[in-house]
Design goal:
Largest sheet: 4 strands, mixed
Protein name: CBS domain-containing protein
InterPro entries: AMPK_gamma/SDS23_families (IPR050511), CBS_dom (IPR000644), CBS_dom_sf (IPR046342)
Strand order of the largest sheet: 7-13-12-11
Structural class: alpha/beta
CATH architecture of the largest domain: Roll
Mean pLDDT: 85
CATH class of the largest domain: Alpha Beta
Helix content: 25-40%
Number of helices: 10
Keywords: CBS domain, Repeat
CATH superfamily of the largest domain: CBS-domain
Distance between the termini: 23 Å
Strand content: 15-25%
Number of strands: 13
Pfam families: CBS
CATH topology of the largest domain: CBS-domain
Length: 349
């Protein structure tokens, strides 16, 4: 995108936001998933009859944080296996509450685990525990409806089913994701950035993201951070209970070290590391070291409170960037976090 100088907060920012959101909706309403998903791309699908252990090993080896599940009996995709499932299994294994023993992971099918999950977590305040039909969209749906489906159901992606009446073959076309939608939208905004003055506004003046209380900004949810010495299980509980995908990891002085995400738990699937450790004894620092050993060091994506909305959207539209941690420039003290979901939620109002 073209760089534009930041614009100070305006008394008419409310009107600016309303006009901008209307234009964004117009763009998304007039385009479908065919504008963001290549029809010829490949997609991984797992048989729901696969043993849990094998399924998670495949997910790790292929670098997948979630994958659709195929039910041969029904002849369609009936669910999704996610990193959250792996977390829930590990929590029960390591807390000695019988659901699956280590040896049972060799034989226990994914579909059986899904049923067990409902039984053991059905009454708990854990995301995704209610039995419900598979959330999906059709290839004829407009991008605004697709984005709203993802946000409102608190999921990271949604299966796209073919709307054709021809029922032969697999009905699944692909997965729709927020990164794909935001990248497409940014390309449209880039064509005429001067037509959207709010893009020059600093994010500190825009209701987007989750912010620390010390910034004086109101947020719909509490900003969570974790120290390196904190138990990983506590960090994972925060992620599941708050229905968030990541948490900033800070040093003793509050400066940003890294971000731990739900998908990082898949590093424990490599060579069955989870079977050789005590999850209750594992610290966040230990977990990050395991992550680095498996996947190498990574960049922690950040921005400043003075960054413009244009700069933030531009960063979030880069493949692999799912969130930006807002930091103070000199101290790297964590001020807030802006996720892809935050960005799309703001854009759609």
């Amino acid at each position: 995108m073209h760089q534009m100088p930041p614009e100070p907060p305006s008394r008419n920012s409310g009107m600016q936001i309303a006009v901008f959101r209307h234009r964004v909706s117009e763009i998304l309403l007039h385009n479908t998933i065919y504008d963001v998903v290549p029809v010829s791309s490949k997609i991984a699908i797992l048989d729901a009859r696969l043993p849990v252990k094998q399924a998670f090993n495949i997910m790790h080896d292929e670098g997948l944080a979630l994958v659709p599940l195929w039910d041969d009996g029904q002849g369609t995709v009936t669910g999704m296996l996610t990193a959250s499932d792996f977390v829930l299994i590990l929590r029960k294994l390591q807390r000695n509450i019988r659901v699956l023993g280590h040896e049972e992971l060799e034989m226990h099918s994914v579909s059986a685990w899904k049923e067990a999950k409902l039984q053991y977590y059905g009454g708990a305040d854990v995301a995704g525990m209610q039995r419900r039909p598979l959330v999906h969209v059709k290839d004829s749906d407009n991008l605004r409806d697709v984005a709203l489906t993802i946000i409102q159901n608190e999921i990271s992606s949604v299966p796209i089913f073919k709307s054709s009446t021809d029922i032969s073959g697999i009905p699944l076309l692909n997965l729709a994701t927020l990164p794909g939608i935001l990248k497409f939208l940014c390309s449209k905004l880039q064509e005429q950035p001067e037509g959207y003055p709010i893009l020059r506004n600093q994010i500190s003046s825009i209701p987007i993201g989750t912010w620390s209380q010390h910034t004086g900004r109101a947020s719909t949810r509490q900003l969570r951070t974790s120290g390196l010495s904190a138990p990983l299980i506590t960090c994972l509980d925060f992620l599941l209970e708050d229905r968030i995908s990541s948490i900033p990891i800070v040093a003793d002085n509050g400066s940003l070290v890294d971000v731990y995400s739900l998908s990082d738990i898949m590093a424990l699937a490599k060579n069955d590391v989870y079977a050789c450790i005590e999850l209750e004894q594992l610290t966040v620092e230990n977990a990050l070291e395991l992550q680095y050993q498996v996947n190498g060091r990574r960049q922690c994506h950040t921005c400043l409170s003075t960054s413009t909305l244009l700069e933030v959207l531009d960063q979030l539209s880069v493949p692999g960037v799912r969130r930006l941690v807002v930091i103070e420039p000199m101290t790297r003290f964590v001020q807030g976090i802006i996720s892809l979901r935050d960005a799309i939620t703001f854009l759609l109002g």
